[in-house]
Design brief:
By secondary structure, the chain is of the alpha/beta class. It has helices at 47-54, 77-83, 101-108, 114-127, 129-133, 144-156, 174-191, 202-208, 226-231; strands spanning 7-18, 21-32, 36-40, 62-67, 70-71, 86-89, 162-166, 194-198, 211-216, 219-225. The strands form 2 sheets. The chain has a 6-stranded mixed sheet, sandwiched between helices.
């Protein structure tokens, strides 16, 4: 598979799984730079496994993964963050509940050094005014929507070129889901961030996404513009 300058992520014949189970079955696909790509498929299709494998949380058994044309196979999560500009917002809540909003942001930027982190925190809070108003509050006291915004903001401290986000709508009201989707659209359109997203709220996600990749049993079964899929009655 050839890689162009417009390719942000490439999976090339990737095999990965847990224990004796193979989840990704010789999976190959490309994700275009500066676009939002939605991963679709039934439970167990391998969507979250794609994100975990890309972020170095699960080792490949075969194949390779490239980010920006560079082979990142075997790279650690820290290397992906600091050297390749990849950030990951996993499913569920992943905050330090007893620490304040500010302290959670500090931890998010720990690889940057405190001086750089403190300089960047205001720009992140500008994207999330409500979180900024709770800057001294314990993270556990934030609403579900505020906690998700804090998680995304913590990832954005690193100014990622690639943002992986797993089920951002879980536990959020429709209004807050729309806010998160608008932010992802803004990151792609204004900052050129490549977003690879897994989302259960498929119709809403297709409306904000540029492209859709469907998986079944760890294999690619569809890759087409999101708008075309949204308009397809099947």
């Amino acid at each position: 598979m050839s890689v162009t300058s417009d390719t942000a992520i490439e999976f090339d014949d990737v095999v990965a799984g847990y224990g004796d189970s193979m989840i990704l079955d010789h999976l190959s696909f490309k994700v275009a730079r500066g676009r939002i790509t939605l991963l679709l498929g039934p439970n167990g299709a391998g969507k979250s496994t794609v994100l975990k494998t890309l972020f170095g949380l699960l080792k490949l058994r075969q194949g390779c993964i490239r980010v920006g044309g560079r082979d990142i196979t075997g790279a650690s999560a820290r290397q992906l963050l600091t050297e390749h500009g990849v950030a990951f917002v996993p499913q569920g809540r992943n905050l330090f509940g007893q620490l304040t909003v500010f302290e959670n942001l500090e931890l998010g930027g720990i690889t940057l050094g405190m001086k750089t982190t403190h300089a960047r925190i205001p720009e992140v809070l500008a994207l999330f005014p409500r979180v900024g108003q709770r800057i001294g509050a314990a993270a556990s006291t934030l609403s579900g929507g505020e906690q998700k915004q804090l998680e995304v903001g913590r990832a954005l401290l690193l100014r990622p070129r690639v943002l992986l986000i797993d089920e951002p709508s879980i536990g959020l009201s429709p209004l807050l889901v729309a806010d998160v989707f608008r932010l992802l659209r803004k990151l792609a359109d204004e900052q050129g961030v490549t977003v690879l997203m897994v989302e259960q709220n498929v119709k809403s996600a297709l409306k904000v996404a540029d492209d859709a990749i469907a998986l079944e049993s760890g294999r690619l079964v569809l890759h087409k513009p999101a708008g075309e899929l949204l308009a397809d009655p099947h």
